[in-house]
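Dear all,

This email documents one entry for the complex benchmark we are building for the journal club exercise. For each entry we list the sequence lines for every component of the assembly. Then comes the predicted three-dimensional structure of the complex as a token string, followed by one or two observations. Please use this as the template for your own entries, and keep the labels exactly as they appear.
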Amino acid sequence: MLLYAAIILMMLGLYGILTQRNIIKIIISLNILEIGLNIFIISIGFVNGGVAPIFTGQNNLGSIGFVDPLPQALVLTAIVIGVGTTALGLALAKKIYAKYGTFEIDDMKGAE
Amino acid sequence: MASLEFLVIIALLGGVLAYLVGKLSKVVGASLTVLVSGFIFVSVAYFGLNGSLDASITYLPFVSFEATDLYLGTSFGILVTFIFFMVSFFNPYFVDKFKYPSLYSMFYLFSLAGVLGVFFTDDFLVLFFFFELVVWTSLFLIPLGKSKKAASWYYGFSAFGSFSLLFAIFVMRNTAGSFNINDGLSMVGGSDQILVFILLMVAAFAKLGAFPLHIWLPKVLGNSPDPVTSVFSGGLEKLGAFVAVMGLVKLAPVGPVIEAIDMALGQYLIAILGALTIVFGTLMAIRQDDAKKLIAYSSMSNGGYILVALTLLNDTSVSGALYHVLIHALASTAAFLAIGAVNRQTGTTKMSELGGMIHKMPVTYIVYLIAIISMAGIPPMGGFVSKWLIFQSVINEGMILIAIATFFGSIGSFLYVFRPLAALFLGQELPEFRKVIKEAPFFMLLPMIILSGLNIFTGVHPSVILQYINNVLAELGVTELGITTWTLSGNNGDLYPALIAVVFGVGVVIAFIIFIVLKKSRKVDLMDTYTAGNFVYTEELLHYSVDFYAPIERLYEKHINIMKDFYKGIAKKVQEFGSFVKYFFFTNKPEITVLWVVIVLGILLLWGDLL
Amino acid sequence: MSAVLLIAIPILAAFISIIVKKWSPYMLLFVSFGLVILLGYLPFEIITIGGFSAPYGISLVVDNYSYTALYVVNVLFFLVAIINVCNYKKLGTILLVSLAGLNGLMLTGDLFNLFVFLEISGISAYIITTTNKKPLATFNYLVAGTVGSILYLLGLIILYNMFGTLNMQDMAVRIAASGATDIEVALPFLLMFIGIGVEAKLLPFNSWVKGILGHSNKLTGPMIAGVYAAASLFVFGRLLTEVFVISDTFMLIISVILAFSILAGEAMAYSSTKVREILLFSSIAQAGIAVLIFVSGFTGYAVLFISLNGFSKVVLFLIINHATEVVGSDEVIDLKGLFVNNKLVGASFTATVLSLLGLPLFAGFFVKMGILSQLFSSGDYVFPAIILLSSVVEGVYFVKLLTKLWYKEDNLPQVKFELPLVYLVVVISLLLVVFGLYFEPLHEQALVLVNHVKGVIL
């Protein structure tokens, strides 16, 4: 279920990048794509009925399924990187606005 | 013993030295090319003819040579180094006109090193190395002349040719397991052999400037500096002939045998293309106004003779082809040098702007006269012997159409080679040149005189050289030509070249006596034309060499640009393709990349379903 | 010396340079020079970070391949830095970060770690390209690069789901052991291929290149076309030779992509009238050839090819971008006669171009022959034909360009090249000639790298 949601989000993100001509909207689409991917990664590690992967007194020797911890660790990194990219994208958007006075790519004059 | 490696190194180091010296003094740098190329020619000729060239390698990496029993390479090597040597006499006189004089001297010698390598190696990869070396070093000699575009045309065709050579080399390597030339050529078979044959022929055609890969030749020969033109026509073109010998003679004939003429289809097709080259070159030469371009087209049609003769694979034809390589090199170099000398003294090679040079440059005139007599194949000169051999083998083979083409070329050459003679040298002097022109300096005359002497010698006493060519024939596995000291035996009887020469000599003497005895003709001004009271604005248009063959030209002038347009079309298509891709892939819209990503992924996914 | 330092030192220096801003250019020079020196003392080993052994922890691999790659990238980086450090003082920090990212790319043996470094170097590249003053082009680069790395991550996660590991060598072992069919792994591999392909400028995925390199300056041109291109191709090589299993379907798709890249790249360069565009489109074709050699499995020659190409592109872009900055236009017509008064620079440019074309007496000839020889002996006639055909086109436009840059009578462009730049290009082009005459070292290096097969596992 989660997997499908993730794939739909990614598709939405791609669709957004393909169709939108507004800088901000493109950045948002990129974000949606990233979020979809992050959810996808989480969903890979998900085990039905699993518990948090922490060794405690109750669950030690794997009699109960752990959720795979690695994707969660990966997602943290991916989120951070995504935030960085978004920030940089927004900074560029500001520069573009300062230069062309618009966010619409189609309206930019002399942008070759 | 002279080591080939040593000679190659001498040429390369000599090039660098000539560059450095050229920085100090242009003329001294250029004179170095005379010394170095002279040294190389003398060593190659002396030790090559003795069969004592040393092929061992100590310093150069990966290079390997073969010198023993290598008559083909040696004969080509001697010829081309000789041409380089002869032409190098011109360098000191021309070098100060060039934009980059010291670079010229360097590349001149580098090309020489490349040529040596090509002819003496036994390894295909080394051959390709030197082949490419010749291409790019000679490439930089071209734009020193009139046209900058000629260089890119030259590179395009040359690269196409040398890359097909490379392709052929690797195909043969895959069969033979090594890069050895003889192994490769003898072991390749089946469909690979057809491929190799085609590729080698493309390489030969591109280098020789044969139809349909001839476009670069007149551009390069017509626009390069005069010494470069001579080297190209007499020396570098011969690389093409060398490759053609490999593909046509050393490689077993390709394709089904045509019963009627007892000839393989592959050879026959090449013969047809060779014949087309002759016809095409002749027709184009007829309509040129620039003397250099005219001889350039004649060079092209002579390449056609070599190709036609090589396809026939019998004693008269192959020896004719090899002899023609020599003859054409001598004659065209002499002709180009003569025109170059005129160009240096007057600054133009356009026939309609010149006239009466015989009064001031008589030696040059004689040199040119002898060269074109040889080119037209008229008896006392070498051209007659080689054409005699080629004609009779073509007829003997029963190839009517091709025989007609060769005759056409020969007759056509009467039409065109005498035109520069008449326009440049004969007629009346132009007023603007009357005072300033002198005969070319002695060291320019020297190579021209030597070449003329050889032009005559090859016609009077060819058996010495044909004897040597017989060694080459034996090496190539072709029946040797029957030769005695004073006769050549062909298919239709014997030829006595010396006797013919004597008869001609007597004729010339009689004519000269008549010329002395009879009354002198009246001298008029060149532009002394009857104009019925009209005022003439552009006198040049009334020069008799303008539109000389207009009626003939009118027959085909609409069709002369077909091949050129074809190649321009290709270039245009490449350009359009590039612009098209640029338009579709490179915009300032970020979604393009994403779109193509999605498309490629979609293809894979759909494909996965289909599978 | 541990390979970790190659990443740690620049990062640390970057942090310090934020605090002491004035030092940043000097720190950049010092660090990048220091790394080049330190590389000499780098032992071949596999370093496991934090003591977790290979499939569980992250490992850095120093073998012949990454060692060569590190050398090439670091030296190139240093050269580009030394030329530009005075003009772009503000960028010291970013360049240090990007150096760390690039070194990480070369070193890492872990697929996810590769993604992280891809993003680090990517983000620094975006910032570096803002110096072009074309924010929209940079934005395009950012979008394309981000989408690319997202795809890479997606493919990587799918692989992780299938095989349960992120270590490259472990992954290769498990793929081989699992008996997964080629079709099953084709999708994740293609995703990763596209992801890196965006950075490596393969044709359908590289619309950003024209905006970036077409307006590049003396820093961004050599940096992106030289250093980054080399780095991304090295990464490609690592993945293609060590991880990917190339199935027929996958091979067909990438063959089409590569053939298209090569041919269209040359055609586009042929149809361009601006020098920078000619160079950038030709580098697209070169990238295609490099990947093609990797796909065919000839690592040694691919590495040589990439290295030579990296150095050549640095020379070409430095010269042209400097001239463009002075003249104010990169149209061939405006730069005509550029070398008439700058003969030394012109000679270097020419030698580099000739080496790029693979003509004898230059290092490029040996590499090109090696590549073609390998391709032919694998029985493949199509790709050599494509490469040779593209070389003809390449030769024609370069010869056209050269004759134009060398010949003009009057009204010459007034361009002076400063001494460091002249020294740099002359030295590199001299090296190209030296290695062209004496190519035994290159040959040995190629053999060493050929013998480098999927290193030591774990």
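Observations: The mean pLDDT of chain A is 83. The two ends of chain A are 44 Å apart (CA to CA).
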